[in-house]
Structures are given as C-alpha cells and as structure tokens.
Design goal:
Blueprint: E1 5-12, H1 16-32, E2 37-44, H2 51-61, E3 65-69, H3 76-86, E4 92-94, H4 103-119
Parallel strand pairs: 1-2, 1-4, 2-3
Helix pairs in contact: 1-2, 1-4
Amino acid sequence: MNKQEISIILPVLNEEENLKFLIPDILRILSEIGISDHEIIVVDDNSTDNTCEIVNEFISSNLNVVYKLRSGVKSLPLSIFEGIEIAKYENVLWLDADGSMDAESIKTILNTFLKIIMML
C-alpha cells in the first residue's frame, strides 16, 4: 500500500451547485499537498437536479473522478458504504458535499489525514 494514495467519497443528493466548486477545490488541494494517487467518488443518492451531468463534465476531463448512482432508499450511511465498496485505494475519507466546508477546511482535513496515515 502506498500511504500517499486516497479515495475521497462525496455522498450527494441534489448538490449540482456545490459540486461545481467542491470537486475542483479537492483536486487542487490534493495536488498542492502532493497526493497524486487519488480518486474522488461521487455517490449520488438519486438526485433530481443536474448532479449527474455536472459530475460527468468532470469525468470527461479527469479520470480520477468516479460517479456511482444509487437506487433504493436514500441513505447517507449506505452511500458512504457503497463508495467504500468501489474505492480502489485502502485509504478512504468521506467529505460532506453540501457546502458546509470551505477549501481551507478541506485542506486541513486532508493534511491531518495524510499525517495520520504516514504514522501507520
């Protein structure tokens, strides 16, 4: 296992506006802190907005973005679990996609996460 690799899960429901900023912020921060082996897994809990289209725009230009559409009962825990199931890296982190965290908060979380996994 390469300790500097990570799968970031974004469970979403109708987050098209937030994803326009969140995905680029995460990709920029990952680059800044030197994590080149990464993926962002967007697990969609069956959004009724344009979440799928927004994510597909990112996928077309970035192979490190993955889209998973859930069906069935809407559930944050199940969305996270399904993201973990398809993650290609052992280091997995999930972040809220509802705009509750700005880029600096995400950077702090990822830097802390990186420090922890480097100690393992």
